Amino acid sequence: MNKSELIDVLSKKENITEKQASDVVNLIFKEFNDQLKEGGRIEIRGFGSFIIRSYDSYTGRNPKTGGKIQVSPKKLPFFKVGKELRERVDS
User: Please, what CATH class does the domain formed by 3-90 belong to?
Assistant: First the structure.
């Protein structure tokens, strides 16, 4: 499922316009994004949680040339699946 499919399902299930559904989905994603940018944690009970993991810089390898390159430190979102979702998918 992608974002436009989510908007379509929401508009049909809740009997709202696609514009209203789009606004709701965009607001949720914006708030998730803002929370993660601030270093916060997002937890949705029964689904999972999102956190930001920090990675130090390291010496990597350029796959084209084989030469060494310095990779900058970075922060990436990480998702940890919740127990209920894991059990539902596994059954």
Answer: few secondary structures
